[in-house]
Amino acid sequence: MNVLNIAMKEFYTSVKSKRFVIILAVYLLFVFLIAYSIKGHFLELTKPQVSRTNLEPFGAEGDTYMTPLSAMLLLNFTFFTIFGAVMGAALGADAINKEVETGTIKVLLGHPVYRDEVINGKFFGNTLVLTITILMGYVFTIAFLLMMGIPLDGESFFRGLIAFIITLLYTLVFLSISILFSTIFKKFETSMLVSVGTAIFLTLIYGIIVTLIAGHLAGEMPPYGTPAFEMWRENVELWEQRLHYINPTYHYAKLIILIFSGDRITNAYAPLSEAFSFGFNNLAMLLVALLLPFAFAYVRFMTSDLR
Length: 307
Known about the structure:
Blueprint lengths: L1 H14 L2 H20 L1 H6 L4 E7 L4 E7 L1 H25 L4 H6 L1 H6 L5 H33 L6 H31 L3 H30 L9 H18 L3 H12 L2 E2 L4 E2 L2 H32 L4
Helix pairs in contact: 1-7, 2-4, 2-7, 4-7, 4-8, 4-9, 4-11, 7-8, 8-9, 8-11, 8-12, 9-10, 11-12
């Protein structure tokens, strides 16, 4: 019961803050501007088709089945790859150390409340904030297409709901990492800087570094068009895949493409069972990236001196 009370308090505190209002407004504005700028493409997409989707900055690509709804959802979730990471990081960066620095943790623990209830309550409260934000983006996407007079298809809608759950899991990874930082750093300004910096690094900078390092590890580039060049390029792609594997952003982008994956022969969606068979390792890696930092944060908070 205490966990629920702390979670609801954390939720109300977060949604009433200027930080949440600004982040949500920026998110919806960007989604609207991007969707509006390519609305002509949606109107021309009268016949769904399988096409190549390349999310190269995140190391993922694949064939996806493009209906107006799936194309719009892919656009939304791709944008959320960066935005969701930053938002998850920003929400949890001051979850613990701000309570300690302002002294409110002593007041909180002065009540019959255990420490594990505090950290769990803060995690669940911020989870609710992220759930509502992603849901609003999903509803906004549906509403935009309806206002444009574009019909929706049921399978894309259902797959969008699955992508919604995967997106929530992805943002929780960065929430978990930032809560860990909030137990490590005493100043919440420091943990905020490190958390948001980590999110920006993994989503915007890491892909560039991977390309540079993979090229270096593969050795000197042979002359173009020779058999040696083909072997070198395969070696580069192998190193890129290995280096991307430690990044949760890669696994999220891979799962989103698999959820909307298409079959070129039948010109339709690939079976979901096939998508999850290919994406099982990516899902497992996301769960590990979520649980591991939170476990460290849990242990550190339970054993730290809060005086």
